[in-house]
């Protein structure tokens, strides 16, 4: 995905509750592991893509579903999974005696992040993760990422084979969520790629808008589900009026709002300004901001693919203190590659330990 340079910075809240959480996590052990749209486990997210994350090393054990190795943060709305790539890798490092690195990764693993859904396994994953979250009295965040012609054939190419397949997939996903709570970020890049040079134009763009509107409608049949349509970022989609019109055509009126900065690095202030411009054009629709890697802001306007020197951003929360901003979310899973960018990086979606540690250790505020 050429659009998003996914980023955010992290301010570690050092209260007694979180210190207790990190201490509790320190004793866990297990394996590193998965995070692609088709993964059957409760694991990370692609960096906008469909490539599988790194498999667990031979001879290591992975914490199984419901193992409870990561407690939920007191007062947190969103679900902390013990099956993300960061959680599993932290357990592996601890088992190898690499305590300092394991502790650094807990700055990622102990925070709630999103589960990306992008293939036929999505229905089962959504059911499993939403049930586990409900048992913990928390709300999971999902990223629906299966639009036909996804990512214009770039790093995260893929998606449903056609419009009929997508409608059936969305319907199944909505049914899997049932009456359980969930927040859904709908189709990163899909709208922005109708407004750039991607080639999703004319009839293809009209079909895409119709599919997005259908997805909003189906998901909103579930009373516990909140839906946020992806609206790009201030560096990729600089014309708010064009984005607002595309959002209208994509069913924003029935959605809870829109998402900005998915997988990118723009500062929270800049995203809030951009989001407020869109909101003013959309009858005051609220929005969420991806703060997963924006702590140091962007390297530059064009550096979206694993740029160095970035940092975790503000932790996920609904207490943003900003009118119209429903939440800061870690939509991009910190530490998972944006793609093979020509510097030896792993494919999109694979967990990349050096990059994850760099994000965690930088730790600037968003």
From TrEMBL:
Signal sequence annotation: 1-26
InterPro entries, per database record: Beta_cellobiohydrolase, Beta_cellobiohydrolase_sf, Glyco_hydro_6_CS
Name of one Pfam family that matches: Glyco_hydro_6
Disordered: region residues: 31-76
Coiled-coil segments on the chain, per record: none
Residue spans of biased composition, Low complexity class: 52-64
Enzyme class label: hydrolase
Record-listed E.C. numbers: 3.2.1.-
Gene Ontology MF terms in the entry: hydrolase activity
The UniProt record lists the keyword Oxidoreductase: no
Keywords: Carbohydrate metabolism, Cellulose degradation, Disulfide bond, Glycosidase, Hydrolase, Polysaccharide degradation, Signal
Active-site residues annotated for this sequence: 151
Matching SUPFAM superfamilies: Glycosyl hydrolases family 6, cellulases (SSF51989)
Domain of life, per lineage: Bacteria
PANTHER family cross-referenced by the UniProt entry: 1,4-BETA-D-GLUCAN CELLOBIOHYDROLASE C-RELATED (PTHR34876:SF4), PTHR34876
Similarity-based family: Belongs to the glycosyl hydrolase family 6.
Name by which UniProt lists this protein: Glucanase
The organism of origin for this protein: Kitasatospora putterlickiae
């Amino acid at each position: 995905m050429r659009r998003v340079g996914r980023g955010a910075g992290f301010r570690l809240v050092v209260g007694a509750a979180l210190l207790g959480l990190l201490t509790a996590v320190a004793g866990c052990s297990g394996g590193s592991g998965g995070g692609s749209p088709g993964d059957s486990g409760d694991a990370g997210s692609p960096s906008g893509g469909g490539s599988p994350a790194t498999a667990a090393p031979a001879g290591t054990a992975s914490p199984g579903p419901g193992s409870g190795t990561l407690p939920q943060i007191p007062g947190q709305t969103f679900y902390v999974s013990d099956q993300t790539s960061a959680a599993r890798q932290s357990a592996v490092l601890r088992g190898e005696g690499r305590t300092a690195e394991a502790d650094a990764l807990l700055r990622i693993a102990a925070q709630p992040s999103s589960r990306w859904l992008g293939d036929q396994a999505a229905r089962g994953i959504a059911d499993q993760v939403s049930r586990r979250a409900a048992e913990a009295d928390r709300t999971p965040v999902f990223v629906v990422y299966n639009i036909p012609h996804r990512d214009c054939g770039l790093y995260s190419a893929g998606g449903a084979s056609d419009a009929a397949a997508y409608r059936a997939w969305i319907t199944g996903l909505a049914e899997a969520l049932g009456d359980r709570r969930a927040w859904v970020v709908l189709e990163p890049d899909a709208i922005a790629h109708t407004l750039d040079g991607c080639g999703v134009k004319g009839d293809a763009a009209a079909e895409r808008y119709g599919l997005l509107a259908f997805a909003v409608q189906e998901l909103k049949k579930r009373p516990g589900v909140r839906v946020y349509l992806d609206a790009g970022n201030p560096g990729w989609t600089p014309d708010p009026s064009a984005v607002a019109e595309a959002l209208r055509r994509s069913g924003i009126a029935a959605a809870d709002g829109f998402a900005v900065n998915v997988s990118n690095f723009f500062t929270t202030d800049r995203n809030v300004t951009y989001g407020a411009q869109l909101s003013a054009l959309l009858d005051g629709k609220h929005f969420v901001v991806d703060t997963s890697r924006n702590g140091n802001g962007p390297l530059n306007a064009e550096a979206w693919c694993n740029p160095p020197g970035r940092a975790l951003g503000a932790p996920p929360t609904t207490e943003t203190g900003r009118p119209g901003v429903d939440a800061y979310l870690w939509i991009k899973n910190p530490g998972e590659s944006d793609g093979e960018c020509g510097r030896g990086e792993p494919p999109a979606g694979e967990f990349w330990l050096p990059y994850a540690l760099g994000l965690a250790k930088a730790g600037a505020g968003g």
